[in-house]
Specification:
This protein has about 110 residues and is of the alpha+beta class. It has two helices and five strands, in the order H-E-E-E-H-E-E. It has a five-stranded antiparallel β-sheet, with helices on one face. A hairpin with a 7-residue loop joins strand 2 and strand 3 (about 35-40). The protein binds guanosine-5'-monophosphate (5GP). Guanosine-5'-monophosphate binds near residues 4 and 95.
Length: about 110
Amino acid sequence: MKTLFQKIADREIPSKMVYEDDQCFAIEDINPQAPVHILVIPKRVIVRLGEVSAEDSALLGHLLVVAGQVARERGVAASGFRAVINSGADAGETVPHLHVHVVGGRALGWPPG
Ligand code: 5GP
């Protein structure tokens, strides 16, 4: 069974894709919470941050590099943005295929809800 994001990567479900390489891709979130809300998603499924292992290190690092690059390209790196990974039920994770939310373009509250 493919995850939702694997189906998006395979173009079985349409999305606004803003970046793609051999390891990951980035799409506009379908329900944006800020003027910039992009998801950076590995092509190889990592279920959630709470289940990663050392062999995921390079891929996880790559996701953060791409998150920073996307933030710069969307013009929020200087003003500030947040990179968020929701892991598990209490964090509000809804898609069990790890993804980094890149959220910016407005002042973000802290602490998170
Ligand atoms: P989570 O709640 O797991 O941290 O984040 C899942 C995110 O995926 C949510 O922000 C949600 O809006 C987004 N999402 C869910 N379904 C789709 C979809 O079909 N297309 C896109 N582009 N985003 C989706």
